[in-house]
Design goal:
Distance between the termini of chain A: 41 Å
Strand order of the largest sheet of chain A: 6-7-8-3-9-10
Strand order of the largest sheet of chain B: 2-1-3-4
Strand content of chain A: 25-35%
Oligomer: heterodimer
Number of helices of chain A: 9
Helix content of chain A: 25-40%
Order of helices and strands of chain A: EEEHEEHEHHHEHEHEEHH
Order of helices and strands of chain B: HHEHEHEEHHHHHHHH
Largest interface: A-B, 37 and 27 residues
Radius of gyration of chain B: 31 Å
Number of domains of chain B: 2
Shape of chain A: globular
Number of helices of chain B: 12
Structural class of chain B: alpha/beta
Distance between the termini of chain B: 39 Å
Helix content of chain B: over 70%
Number of strands of chain A: 10
Shape of chain B: elongated
Chain lengths: 257, 392
């Protein structure tokens, strides 16, 4: 991996949320990682680890408290619109407009990503065909099944063919078929040379999909590397044990004496 | 140029989405189109039924020392008469309160003058109707007596000076004046109601539908998103106001023609309609921006509805104030937000609108709308921060 290939660069990223009575919660405590072209990087961590916060900062939905995040050469603080143009973001909280049809949704996003005329028609058709959405492309999104909605969401993420894909727990809440379809989509994105950054707490998914993993816990990146490297570092035989060892080691540091 | 196109795309989708919302269609289209004809029909039916019922109410009248001509006149007017000589006030009051009597007439003579004293209960409809019938009957008797008296003395009542009233007001002006008494307040309420649902729907509604984050991921500045939502709200409100205006005008015209009131022409001219829509548009812009700003603070649709509810009351007050005859849109009142809109409506309807105050009102409303939109954009930029905090 050389510097030219890096499409996501996160350096000493911190995020603090204000709480009542002047208190603050440190969701991210200065994490650093990078993700290259053609690579799937997974942020692995329990609930509340800071995965969503990190991804939302990269998608310009949140502002970092300090540190730096660069996506496709654009700083998230300085050029948020350019960052949004460069990436496709998919999460459980990015719903579809219920009153628009699948085709109208794709056309709307395509227009805002600068496509028009024949190029727009061709691209929308390409995505509809590629994701096998022909049978329901004219149906309002509110009437689609979960699996169909997921396909439209993926189509919405891919419509401008972004170089960077950020996926926040992409299979959470999906049935077996829809989850399998989403995993296929992630693997095909990698095959097409996309930079994929995803968060998950499903070990098997992380093991199957990710080239490299970052174990995130309480806002800190505890360890980083491929599945094999993580196993080797912790001396464990499987990823789940390696993950738990990292977490417990960190918890042990916090115990006085 | 491309940014303007982005704004246009956003706006188009917002409007498209709004017009596919059943609730928005109900309040913005169906209700205005059907409400006034139905109200008018109901009102005419109720009036006619009420008149018929009133006509059938028998009036029970107690007479004390009545001359024969009075008995004959009241009897021929259909009143149920009861003659008693031993009549005391306490007894009459008791019977009036009990409802066994509708009115009592006591006749007395003072210095060759006959005085009729009518006792009735003004809180009872039956008693009021009886009093009205007695007075009408006696007025008619008195008028006939005067005419007869004049004729006996060689006068012809037709030779007495007659009164002719000449008003310089045209039927259109009179219609405009009549409309300006109630329509400004009404239009403000209609516009406020028409703004509130879409303003809440495009903000909190999006959050409830889980599409807020999707919208924030669009590759456009946040201010563009808020502006497109505001324009969609204004279009929805203008559509509702225009439909309300058209439906109400047609209904009132029908009522005026049924009642055969030739002195009133309540059809607004095209220029009046355009000016009304212009004023309503800037009002919707201002109210929409405030409601969007308020809605960005709410986490649920119902919470947003509660938060914007005081604005309904705020919008009613200028409507009341505009009925004060001495209050007009001038260079002073044009600087008072909301009141200036109400007075602008009044000026347009009564053909007394002046250019400079109207322009001040348009400018002030637009500037305030820009201020609140900028504030809302700022709130939208900060919004995910709180959501993120809640999630993580």
């Amino acid at each position: 991996m050389n510097d030219q290939e890096i499409l996501i660069q996160v350096s000493s990223l911190k995020k603090t949320f204000p709480r009542e009575a002047g208190n603050h919660v440190e969701a991210l405590k200065g994490i650093t990682f990078s993700c290259a072209k053609g690579e799937i990087y997974g942020l692995l961590g329990p609930n509340g680890a800071g995965k969503t916060t990190a991804l939302r900062i990269l998608a310009t939905l949140l502002r970092p408290s300090s540190g730096k995040a660069v996506v496709n050469g654009f700083d998230v603080m300085k050029s948020p619109v350019s960052v949004r143009r460069s990436l496709g973001f998919l999460s459980g909280t990015t719903g579809l407009y219920p009153r628009l049809t699948a085709r109208e949704t794709l056309e709307f996003f395509a227009r805002l990503f600068g496509m028009k005329g024949k190029e727009l028609t061709r691209r929308v058709q390409e995505v509809i065909h590629g994701l096998e959405m022909e049978s329901f492309s004219h149906v309002p999104c509110e009437k689609l099944s979960t699996g169909m909605k997921q396909r439209v969401s993926i189509g919405r993420t891919l419509i401008h063919d972004p170089d960077v894909l950020i996926l926040d727990e992409p299979t959470t809440g999906l049935d077996v078929l829809a989850a399998a379809g989403t995993r296929d989509f992630i693997q095909s994105a990698k095959a097409r040379g996309k930079c994929v950054l995803m968060s998950t707490h499903i070990m098997s998914e992380a093991e199957t999909l990710c080239d490299r993993l970052g174990i995130l816990h309480e806002g800190q990146l505890l360890s980083e590397g491929s599945v094999e490297e993580l196993k080797e570092k912790t001396g464990e035989k499987n990823l789940e044990d390696a993950f738990l060892r990292c977490i417990r080691r960190q918890a042990g540091k916090g115990i006085p004496g | 140029m491309s940014r303007l196109l982005d704004l246009l795309h956003l706006f188009r989708v917002e409007v498209q989405s709004q017009y596919r919302d059943r609730q928005a269609l109900l309040y913005g289209v169906l209700l205005p189109v059907t409400l006034y004809p139905l109200l008018l029909f109901g009102l005419m039916q109720a009036t006619s039924i009420s008149a018929g019922l009133t006509e059938r109410i028998p009036s029970r009248v107690l007479l004390s020392h009545p001359p024969s001509w009075m008995k004959d006149a009241l009897s021929s007017a259909g009143l149920h008469l009861e003659t008693r000589l031993d009549l005391d006030n306490a007894g009459i009051r008791q019977r009036l309160h009990e409802g066994s009597l509708d009115a009592a007439v006591r006749v007395s003579s003072e210095e060759e003058k006959t005085v009729l004293q009518i006792t009735y209960d003004s809180s009872q409809e039956r008693s009021l109707e009886a009093e009205y019938r007695i007075v009408s009957c006696m007025e008619s008797v008195r008028a006939n007596r005067i005419i007869r008296w004049l004729r006996e003395r060689g006068f012809r009542p037709e030779d007495l000076p007659s009164i002719e009233e000449v008003s310089v007001t045209s039927s259109r002006q009179m219609g405009g004046f009549a409309l300006s008494l109630f329509l400004p307040g009404f239009l403000l309420v209609v516009a406020t109601m028409a703004v509130s649902h879409p303003a809440i729907d495009v903000t909190v509604g999006e959050r409830e539908r889980n599409t807020w984050e999707t919208t924030l991921l669009l590759p456009v500045p946040r201010a563009w998103i808020v502006a497109s939502k505001l324009f969609a709200v204004v279009i929805m409100a203008l559509g509702a106001v225009a439909l309300n205006l058209a439906s109400m005008s047609l209904s009132i015209q029908h009522l005026v023609s049924v009642l055969q009131v030739d002195a009133l022409d309540v059809t607004p001219s095209p220029s009046q309609v355009l000016l009304l829509l212009l004023a309503a548009g800037t009002y919707a812009l201002l109210m929409g921006s405030v409601m969007i700003l308020i809605s960005t603070r709410a986490s649920h649709f119902s919470e947003a509805q509660s938060l914007v509810a005081p604005l309904y009351l705020v919008s009613i007050l200028p409507g009341f104030l505009s009925t004060i005859s001495t209050l007009h849109l001038d260079r002073t009142t044009a600087w008072i937000p909301l009141l200036n809109v109400s007075l602008a409506f009044k000026g347009i309807l009564s053909h007394s609108l002046r250019g400079t105050p109207f322009l001040i009102h348009l400018l002030l409303s637009s500037l305030l709308a820009c201020f609140f939109t900028a504030w809302a954009s700022r709130a939208v930029r900060r919004q995910p921060l709180q959501e993120g905090a809640a999630r993580e």
